[in-house]
Structures are given as C-alpha cells and as structure tokens.
Design brief:
Blueprint: H1 4-34, H2 40-56, H3 59-69, H4 78-97, H5 104-119, H6 124-160, E1 170-173, E2 180-183, H7 189-223, H8 229-245, H9 248-258, H10 264-283, H11 290-306, H12 312-321, H13 375-402
Helix pairs in contact: 1-2, 1-4, 1-7, 1-8, 1-9, 1-11, 2-7, 2-8, 3-7, 4-5, 4-7, 4-13, 5-7, 5-13, 6-10, 6-11, 7-8, 7-10, 10-11
C-alpha cells in the first residue's frame, strides 16, 4: 500500500540522487569540459549512463554496507529512512549552492552514523574500517600523483605531447541529414586520439561514481525493505541524471576552471588514479568520496611538478638550517617550457627526454605559465568537505534523540 510517508521517502531519495548528480558530474567530467572535449550537456548524458552501469554492477556491495553494515537494517524504519535521507540531501544542496563537489559518501555515512549513535546501534568495527579508508585514500591519491608529477610528468609531457588546442578537436558536421562528428580543422589525429582517451577515462570516473554513490540515495530505503536493491539503483540513477543535466553546471565550472586549468595529460592522470582508487574501494564494499580523491590527485600532481625546482637533498639541508629551500611555484601543472609551442606535435621518441631539465635545475619562472589551482577555491572545497558530513551527522543525531522513530530489537 502506497502511503504518504512512502511517497515522501521516495521523494527525498530522488532529492538526494539529484544532488549527487549535481556534485559528482563535475568531478568526473570537469577536466574533460575544461579541456574542451565535451559540452556540459554531453557530459551530463555520459555521466548518467555510466553511473547507472556502475551502480547496477559494483554498487550493490556498497548498498549492502550502508543498508545493514553500519547499523542493523531493522533500525531503518520508513520514518528513520526519510530523516536520514533528508539530512544527506540538505547537506549536499548547501554544497551545490556553493558550486563545490561535495563528499557525498561521507555525508551519507555521517547521517547514518548519527542515527546509530542516537539509537545505540552503531557498528564501530564497520565505521572504523570505513573511516580508515577515508584517511588513507586521499593521502594515497596525493602521493601517487605527487610522485608522477615530480619524476615522470615532464617526460610524459614530452613523449606524448598532449598539449591541446583552444577548442574541441571534434566538430559536428550538420550539412547532411544526419549530423556527423569530424576532426576539427586545427586539430591533429593524435590530439583526437588522446582526447578520446581522456573522455573514456571520464566515463570510467562516472562508472566509479555510480558504484560508490548510488547507495547514498537509497540504502536506508533498501535497508528498511521499502524497495529492493535493483529498484533502488534505477531510482537513484534516474535522479542522478536529473541532477547531472541541471545543477551540475556549476560544479563543472568549479572543477574544470576554478580549481585548475588542466591540460590533457594531467586530466588523464587525475581521472585514472582517482577512478581506480574509488572503484577498488567500492569493490571492497567501502563507500568513499570521488570528490576528495580527484581533487587530491590534482593538488598532488601539481605539487609534485612544482617541487622539481629543488632536489630532496637541498630541501632537507635548507630545512635543517632553517632556510627557505626554494621558491615553489603553484603554476606547475600546465606549464610549458620555452621551446614548446602550442598545439599538438609529434614526440621525438628517445630525444624527447633530452629536453626535460633535471630535478633541481628547473627555474621557478619555467613553472608559472598557468595557475595550478586557485587557493580560495581549494579552501572552499576543503571547508565544505568537513562541513557537510558534520552537519549531516549532528542534525541526524539530534533528530533521532528527540524523535526516536527508528526500529530495533
């Protein structure tokens, strides 16, 4: 029997999914949109499709963890599920209004943990496992990309020469009855190939986002037996699609333009590392944040690139002596060396590495052509990562302490 409370529960689940789409689309496709590979509308469509695939496959394990692992599933009455989802959606909405990709999984787990604390049913072992991975995954993302940026990025940039044109390498020919995609006049086949690679990796990120985030919208309803897991995936995917086509435009701007102006190579590295980390955690049934991992990849890659102006020995010596080791530019990620020209050109094989200056020999002025990230935008992101799950957990705890509408033994 369909009741008013059931309709409210479904509506709130859609509201959460809507905000997930608005938040995660920017994380997955922000680099591709910022690199002119796909329009915002195209990014929304691709994200919706691959998020559905990710949720339908890998995401079921994450649904199990959130619907019966953090707290026993019999505590998820319909009223309790509505309360949890409401606070998740409210926190995410606040984040999206600021145009920042939210930590969706942290926010959802925070709301469920608030219910568990209020009811005395929180599984501390499962929470400890989840939080441990929350601490490990962004550090792992940062250092993997920092190592790539410091030791490998300049060589990869020379070998693969992935500089992109100012516009998309693909144009749509509408002269015939059916629009046909063609190579743009100022683009090369090599640029097209690597652009498509970045686009494929963005779809991979959408897959990982669906695997991790579908549970955030429907796990309480699945835990309480209101809907099945399959019904939940479909409901969440539809709501995510709506968010992708609407409020995601602001987060696409934030990740694609405000945080950093990523070249194609950097987009490829960030997408591959962050999506692999999140997909791996989802396969372990751990709800984790794609937003956190992706942004830490961006910062780590640029930080590693910037530290090429000094050797480890020089930095350690300066630290011991209390001196400044070197001026580290944050304009490292998209920098071009003086002999590089715009546009894609053929790499010179083994000779490409000869143009890369050794670590310690690069001058800070060589690394300042573009800003890695806007510190104010980055600070806004970090602040809301902390604020949204905290608000969700505190509000959920207070609600269920005052109104104990949860179930139990």
């Amino acid at each position: 029997m369909i009741t008013v409370l059931l309709l409210v529960g479904l509506a709130v689940a859609v509201f959460v999914g809507f905000n997930i789409g608005g938040s995660s689309t920017g994380v997955a496709f922000g680099p591709a949109v910022g690199s002119h590979l796909v329009s915002k509308t195209g990014a929304a469509g691709l994200f919706a499709l691959f998020a559905l695939i990710g949720g339908w496959t890998v995401g079921r394990g994450v649904i199990d963890t959130m619907s019966q692992g953090i707290i026993p599933q019999n505590y998820f009455t319909l009223a309790a599920s509505v309360g949890v989802l409401f606070f998740v959606g409210l926190a995410l909405l606040i984040s999206n209004l600021f145009g920042v990709p939210a930590s969706t999984s942290m926010t959802a787990v925070g709301a469920i943990a608030g219910l568990g604390l209020a009811s005395g049913s929180l599984n501390w072992g499962v929470m400890g496992r989840i939080v441990s991975w929350w601490l490990v995954s962004p550090v792992l993302a940062f250092w993997i990309c920092a190592v790539i940026g410091r030791y490998f990025y300049p060589y990869l940039s020379e070998w693969f020469a992935l500089d992109q044109s100012e516009s998309s390498p693909i144009r749509i020919d509408s002269s015939g009855r059916v629009p046909v995609p063609r190579l743009a006049e100022d683009a090369t086949r090599k640029e097209l190939f690597w652009s498509l690679v970045v686009l494929v990796i963005s779809c991979y990120m959408a897959f990982s986002a669906g695997a991790s985030n579908v549970a955030n919208a429907v796990a309480p309803l699945v835990g309480g037996g209101t809907i099945t897991a399959s019904q939940g995936v479909i409901l969440a995917a539809a709501a995510i699609a709506i968010g992708s086509f609407t409020i995601a435009r602001r987060t696409l701007d934030t990740v694609g333009n405000d945080l950093t102006d990523l070249p194609l190579l950097a987009s490829l590295i960030v997408a591959t590392v962050s999506a692999t980390i999140i997909t791996g955690l989802s396969a372990l049934d751990i709800p984790a944040s794609l937003a956190v991992s992706a942004t830490m990849c961006i910062v780590g890659l640029g930080w590693g690139r910037a530290t090429r102006t000094t050797t480890i020995a020089d930095a350690a010596s300066a630290a011991i002596q209390g001196e400044e080791s070197a001026t580290l530019s944050t304009g490292a990620l998209a920098a071009e060396t003086p002999d590089r020209t715009s546009g894609v050109r053929a790499a010179d094989g083994d000779r490409a590495g000869e143009r890369v200056q050794p670590i310690g020999d690069e001058e800070p002025t060589d690394l300042t052509s573009q800003d890695l990230f806007d510190p104010s935008a980055t600070g806004r992101v970090v602040m809301l990562w902390i604020l949204t799950p905290s608000l969700s957990a505190i509000a959920s705890y207070l609600l269920f302490r005052i109104f104990p509408v949860y179930g139990g033994a």
